[in-house]
Design brief:
Elements (H helix, E strand, L loop, with lengths): L1 H4 L42 H29 L5 H22 L5 H26 L7 H18 L18 H18 L5 H28 L1 H22 L1 H7 L1
């Protein structure tokens, strides 16, 4: 009897399988049951001010895409001539090169010449393909084109890499991500769909050159500006917001009120 009474009580063990433990109910737990539980192990604490600053890049690119859509709308309505579009293309291309030259830490003449040569090939190829783009969707109704274009633009915004750019920046070791490349291809398809609804080959070439310049080079230019000076990045973002709102107001006052 003394040996039985001196036996220490059996300790409850936390086991997943093995049946009931003698001396304990089937649903018994003790204070050690939750001692190994880890909650919110991978939670990252965010700084509100930093999150607000990072959201500027998202707002900036939304304005860029909105400006592209507005130019598409004005072009489809024949408000903008193809000569004006070509002039806009030249201004954007020259401004983009100037920004890259001024903000890049180190860029060689060889690399600059390679950029110019690639863009020349790109423009020549685009001009040669303009007649094909012009008649590419002739058998498809316009309503289907508008719906598919809207869907592609939304998908483009969803997959776009807002932390980087669609092209490798000069001096940057980071390459574009897979989702960024997919997003870029989607934007090109949307541009082709819009271009196929324009009245002439000159319009097709001008609008395709404009769209591809923006979707290809605008993220690169904005990335270079942000890396060079964050204040300049904020000023450019504010300017894009004001320009977008002004063009939206000119197009549709009700939509302008919704955006505000």
């Amino acid at each position: 009897m003394d040996e039985i009474s001196s036996t220490p009580p059996r300790k409850w063990r936390k086991v997943a399988y093995g049946g009931m433990q003698p001396g304990f109910d089937d649903n018994h737990t003790d204070e050690s049951f939750l001692e190994d539980m880890v909650t919110n192990a991978n939670v990252v604490k965010r700084d509100l001010f930093k999150v607000m600053l990072d959201s500027v890049s998202i707002c900036q690119y939304l304005c860029i895409v909105s400006l592209v859509v507005l130019v598409w709308t004005y072009t489809l309505a024949s408000t903008i001539s193809h000569n004006s579009l070509l002039l806009l293309d030249v201004i954007l291309l020259g401004s983009g090169f100037l920004v890259i030259l001024l903000t890049a830490e180190m860029i060689s003449l060889r690399l600059l010449f390679q950029y110019i040569l690639n863009i020349s090939y790109f423009i020549i190829g685009l001009y040669a393909l303009s007649p094909i783009y012009h008649t590419l969707t002739r058998s498809i109704s316009s309503d289907s084109i508008w719906a598919l274009t809207a869907l592609l633009i939304v998908l483009h915004l969803f997959l776009h890499d807002y932390t980087g750019c669609t092209m490798k920046a000069p001096g940057s070791p980071k390459n574009p991500t897979l989702s960024s490349n997919v997003s870029l291809n989607i934007s090109i398809i949307a541009s082709v769909l819009i271009a196929s609804r324009l009245p002439s080959r000159q319009y097709v070439f001008a609008i395709m050159l404009f769209s591809l310049q923006v979707f290809l080079f605008a993220p690169l230019v904005m990335y270079c500006i942000k890396r060079y000076s964050f204040r300049l990045h904020l000023c450019c973002s504010l300017g894009l917001v004001c320009l977008t709102l002004a063009l939206v107001y000119k197009l549709q006052g009700f939509l302008f009120g919704l955006l505000l």
